[in-house]
Design goal:
130 residues, 3 helices, alpha+beta, single chain, 8 strands, five-stranded antiparallel β-sheet, three-stranded antiparallel β-sheet
Length: 130
């Protein structure tokens, strides 16, 4: 999965998604289907208890170099330094925040997180391995 074919220096124009972590299969990294008690991977058939599901970063960006626009998605632990925590811990913090604040609308915490990510990334130049 880490077969970098080239490097691209580009600026982030926008964030394309508002969900930066997802429950991921530990075998194939596909999105897990979660219910209240269990998880299931539709790709490889892995199952387990929902509380044991692991999480992974997924950040979709629109970027631009000097001549072109690109839609890219950045996955995994390379985003840990930008968020300051692993995807597992970020998901736990979001859940804890919603529980402690009595927030029933996940949009509130999501909105604050989206604003922080936009501030961190939009207008900044990065080197992407593609």
């Amino acid at each position: 999965m880490n077969n970098v074919k080239g490097l691209l220096a580009a600026s982030v124009i926008s964030i394309q998604n508002s969900c930066f972590v997802y429950p991921a299969c530990q075998n194939c990294f596909s999105r897990l289907i979660l219910d209240s008690r269990r998880f299931n991977c539709l790709k490889c058939g892995c199952t387990g208890e929902a509380k044991d599901a692991s999480y992974r970063y997924r950040l979709s960006l629109k970027i631009a170099d000097t001549s072109d626009l690109f839609d890219i998605t950045v996955f995994g632990s390379c985003l840990d330094p930008f968020f300051g925590v692993t995807a597992e811990n970020l998901q736990r913090y979001i859940q804890d925040f919603n529980q402690l604040s009595g927030e029933t609308n996940a949009e509130t915490s999501t909105g604050a997180l989206v604003q922080a990510v936009e501030t961190c990334f939009i207008g900044k130049r990065f080197i992407f391995g593609v």
